[in-house]
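User: quick one - fold this with iron/sulfur cluster bound?
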Amino acid sequence: SKYTVVDQETCIACGACGAAAPEIFDYNDEGVAFVILDENEGTAEVAEGLFDDLDDAVEGCPTDSIKVETSPFKVLVD
Ligand code: SF4
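Assistant: Sure. Structure tokens for the protein plus iron/sulfur cluster:
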């Protein structure tokens, strides 16, 4: 299983991840990325068919802001 979340503290709103994986990543009003699947909580399992896109996004992120784990992330508290 894979779960993903964007570290919005380090994301520089470059737009690469949404191009690589448009079904996983979108951007807020400031262009900062978030995971569409679960509002960037990292608790929704990424479908296997999206693993290649996810890998591309991780590799293409210039700030290493896309985190991937094999179990759900703890919900980030704002
Ligand atoms: Fe942010 Fe990385 Fe996505 Fe660029 S590729 S928008 S830095 S998460």
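One thing worth noting: Residues 6, 11-17, 33, 60-63, 65-66 surround iron/sulfur cluster (CB under 6 Å).
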